[in-house]
Amino acid sequence: MAAEIQPKPLTRKPILLQRVEGSQEVVNMAVIVPKEEGVISVSEDRTVRVWLKRDSGQYWPSIYHVMPSPCSCMSFNPETRRLSIGLDNGTISEFLLSEDYNKMTPVKNYQAHQSRVTMILFVLELEWVLSTGQDKQFAWHCSESGQRLGGYRTSAVASGLQFDVETRHVFIGDHSGQVTILKLEQENCTLVTTFRGHTGGVTALCWDPVQRVLFSGSSDHSVIMWDIGGRKGTAIELQGHSDRVQALSYAQHTRQLISCGGDGGIVVWNMDVERQETPEWLDSDSCQKCDQPFFWNFKQMWDSKKIGLRQHHCRKCGKAVCGKCSSKRSSIPLMGFEFEVRVCDSCHEAITDEERAPTATFHDSKHNIVHVHFDATRGWLLTSGTDKVIKLWDMTPVVS
């Protein structure tokens, strides 16, 4: 009797819709134009380009504008078609795009920073332009008058910026790994708090105003979810990249986080599950399972006539253990460990198959991603990479 051939399960993955090429240098930031087959990009080659899809199916520039300095970042407001561009020389230049996206008209310039602008946010509800720069300054300006309203000096160069309109709280992530929360008024700000959880610099921030959760990505390859609204100080780690996390985006309607990194990975995290905090690592002079001394515990080594062992930690319980008592590996997805990590033998036996079920999907973009933009209405994801290429993806197979 012939063996029955079982069909392989279909792998759900993003569909590459388009490659947009033509920039001479890295595209530092780009956005999908809502309700249009278009993309706006700013590049290190000093160009601002609006790419529209032609009858041939290819994207070609309808606007090609050269700025006086390399373009480091941008903020686009679709309702007003206002485009704010941060430059390497510290200036923010504001433009208004025409309805057909074939013309851009200069509006004003802000002398915002002493050096390169790192992030910009335009807040329509308050008519504010928020920005950070390599001069370690956070600043906000009135977009109507162009007047500077205030500033705050950060502990290091900022690389992440988010704003909550309802509470007027601004979140700033910097290269030291610190996140600063400020409360903004019309002409002054007050420091609410600072916190840190990364061992590397913060590279990206993403704010969910509904769940009141802040996500931070870092050069330490991790993402941390900070429960700001819960007021309990809960911080959930997500470990799914093998290189620095470069960009984050959040799909509110499905409660999925998209993280992208220097490893080319696009990771889609299911945040609609009950996640657990990783335990604090415990200190001990001997293994907390077999009581063997660690190599610095000379007294116990002498008394027991035993050779000191190297200390490890179980990622599930946090106990200090020796290599023999932690020889097993396991994934712990609800703790953010999608790949196998060291666990003690007793925790390995206690982890069920259900607890090992993945809560994230992993996809290869085949380029080193520096920025992403997600269009939730169509389920499209834009990635720009160090290869000077913009890629458009249909994420509906995995974000739904």
Automatic annotation (TrEMBL):
Record's protein name: WD repeat and FYVE domain-containing protein 2 isoform X2
MF terms in GO: zinc ion binding
GO cellular component: early endosome
Organism of origin: Tursiops truncatus
Coiled-coil parts of chain: none
Alphabetically ordered keywords of this record: Endosome, Metal-binding, Repeat, WD repeat, Zinc, Zinc-finger
GO biological process: positive regulation of fat cell differentiation
Source domain of life: Eukaryota
